[in-house]
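hey so i finaly got around to running the thing on Leucyl aminopeptidase family protein from Paracoccus cavernae. pasting the sequence first so u can double check i didnt mess up the copy paste, my clipboard has been acting weird all day
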Amino acid sequence: MTPEFAPASSSSLPLWLVHSDSDGPLYPQATPAEAAIWGKANGFTAKAGQILVLPAADGSIKGAFFGLGPIDQARPARERYPLARAADGLPAGDWHIADAPEGVDLSLAAFSWLLSAYRFDRYKSAAPARARLVCPEGVDAGRVLAMIAGEYLARDLINTPTSDMGPDDLEAAARALAMRHGASISVIAGDDLLAQNFPMIHAVGRAGAQAPRLLDLRFPGTGPKVTLVGKGVCFDTGGLDIKPPSSMLLMKKDMGGAASAMGLSEMLARLGLTANISLRVLLPVVENAIAGNAFRPGDVLTSRKGLTVEINNTDAEGRLILADALALAEEEAPDFLVSMATLTGAARVALGPDLPPFFCDDDAIAAAIQAAGARAYDPVWRMPFWEPYENLIEPQIADLDNAPSGGFAGAITAALFLRRFAGKARHYAHFDIYGWQPAGAPARPKGGTGQAMRTLLEALPEVLK
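ok and heres what it spat out for the 3d tokens, dont ask me to read them lol
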């Protein structure tokens, strides 16, 4: 369940946010003198993440200090959501921020607090009670809650194992999203994909236990055309080029692009922003499985766009299903076309799991996206559509190669491949996300995570000018 802010109440406990090197006294003037004495006696130095609970005379809790560290580390590079440590470490109950130094981003503080409450508990007993926050004065609670809802949705979808998040289940989740926000949804599945000219989605998914499909959501609204395309590989064995077991363990997350596209749509719809754009979400959904009818290395597939693709690795399947969906998207010449996919290991080698690369030809749009990521604490990093590598995706017997040999520039060649199917869009951006937090961090437990959603939410006004 998505958390809410605690109601404003005189019974909520005060939390003082304190820098360790402020010009004034270490403890806020609003803090009673006894509390300051208690802090000194217990060695509270306000280092980043330090918590000191303050006792009342009767032994109950009357408040707490939370350390922000030095002023120049109020937004430390190593900790994206610093106030999450307060939410995790304080006793259960309702809390309000009684005092915060100038320059502290209270919207980020509120978002961090709610994001830290996320737990994937579908298969566990109920979680214990946690500390709740009263929304700080001046913070747009609706925007924070909309972002939290989108983040939770994406995480839940990615974390759910394929036994409960196969193509049928992902379609059900998309239908629920559409129903919540008055969107329409159409589905093309199974052999109908061939009849309606989505041959590569069909080829990749036809060996799966559940039929491949293309989900097409349209949200009510008018304005610039924004189309999101999210890779929905519910499980990826690698196909006949089978992955080793160690590489297959996380493949429930290979629908992270679809999850992130849905999470972003949830944010936009909750904020009412879909009223002023024509939002379309295309989700090609498959299992890349092994059976007698699986597509093979060496096959040549003809895409929706008419371009032929030589299959040199069945484990490079994501770009194939995205290509058919992008070809459909570009037929409407959208103003902004975005693809989101857990696509290449090369992107992880280059930038790691926490910093997804994106590709965009327009310098102004790319700058707006990168700046938005910094403001939203959802960082991304631009990489190039490097034209000299175009020859790497052009094999001898077909128009395109889905897996160029040599292993160099894998993220770039994948992006160049996809760009061939998005050419009619006014602006195109591709995000090669990871969708997984490999080690726990404040507000980011180990497991599924959406990426680039808040970046795009923040960037859209600038991109659509």
